[in-house]
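Today's session is about reading a structure prediction critically. Students often jump straight to the picture, but the first step is always the sequence itself: look for stretches that repeat, for charged clusters, for runs of hydrophobic residues. Only then move on to the predicted structure, which in these notes is written as discrete structure tokens rather than atom positions. Here is the chain we will use throughout the hour.
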Amino acid sequence: MIKFTEEKVGRYQIKVGNFPDGYRFAININGGLFKRGVENSREKAFETARNLISNENSERLASRIDGVPSAEEFKEALSQVRVSDSQWDMLKAHYNAQGKKLSSTQLATAAGYDHLSVANMQYGALGHKLADELNYQPPGKYKNGDPLWITVLVNDSGITYEEDSGHFQHELREEVAKALELLGEVGR
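Below is the predicted structure for this chain, in token form.
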């Protein structure tokens, strides 16, 4: 019976076992195979696997425009994290809004919440989960320097204040909107 040793590296799971031809490794991500190979020692197998993961992450980060994950990356992340029904309701309402802009009050209404603070908390929580999955730091920050997680989903520069309503309008990121289309969650 082959004994496997496992190690988690970010979103990846490395599994190494000693076979007659050497130490085979498999790298899985989100339940699917990413890469596999064979090395002459357990240590070398883990080192090679870590290097493959590092190279993949570097290539992905380098391909981002202004550091923002692509629509395909957002699609994958939305498929992997737990998105509540109310968060889906907010995303869909945001997508379908004129100019893809909604206030926190409108997001709350779309999700059936009584107060905008709950919508902000839920949208921020979703942004945080996506940021973790994507290895992405949101551009927005609070005055104390803490991440403004909602800016994973909305354009930081797209937050505008409407004088007539007295509310800020959050503009859904183009990459998130396209990811929703790719997932089939909204019409094109």
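Discussion point for the tutorial: Residues 42-63 form the longest helix (22 residues).
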